[in-house]
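Is this the right way to post C-alpha cells for a design question? Let me know if I should format differently. Anyway, here goes:
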C-alpha cells in the first residue's frame, strides 16, 4: 500500500514540476503515472550502474557529478515517453532537482514513518 502511495506522490510531483517549469511538459495524469514508474525503474536499475562507472569523476567533483547523472536520466526518460517532454539537458537537470525536492516534501508530509 505504501509503495502505491509513493508512486502517486511521485506522479503528483511530476505534474507539479511540469506546472512550475515551462520546459517540461506532462500531458495527463496517466502520463505522469507512467513517467513516475519509468523514472523509478531507471533510478533503481540504471542509476547505480552509471554512478559506479563514473566513480572517478564523482570523486573528483566531490559528488556533484551525481546531479549531472540525475539530470541526464530525467532527460532520457522524457525522450522516449509520449506525453512527457523535457526540452534539453538543463531542463532535465533542474527538473530532476525540483522533482526530488517536491517528492521528498510530499512524502514527508503524507507518508508517516510508522507502519
Amino acid at each position: 500500500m505504501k509503495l502505491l502511495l509513493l508512486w502517486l506522490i511521485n506522479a503528483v510531483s511530476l505534474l507539479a514540476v511540469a506546472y512550475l517549469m515551462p520546459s517540461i511538459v506532462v500531458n495527463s495524469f496517466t502520463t505522469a503515472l507512467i513517467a513516475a514508474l519509468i523514472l523509478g525503474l531507471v533510478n533503481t536499475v540504471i542509476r547505480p550502474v552509471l554512478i559506479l562507472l563514473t566513480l572517478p569523476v564523482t570523486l573528483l567533483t566531490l559528488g556533484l557529478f551525481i546531479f549531472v547523472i540525475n539530470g541526464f536520466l530525467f532527460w532520457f526518460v522524457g525522450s522516449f515517453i509520449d506525453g512527457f517532454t523535457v526540452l534539453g539537458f538543463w531542463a532535465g537537470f533542474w527538473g530532476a532537482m525540483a522533482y526530488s525536492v517536491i517528492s521528498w516534501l510530499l512524502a514527508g508530509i503524507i507518508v508517516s514513518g510508522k507502519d
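Format looks fine. Someone answered above. Worth noting: The chain has a mean pLDDT of 93. The chain has one domain: 2-110.
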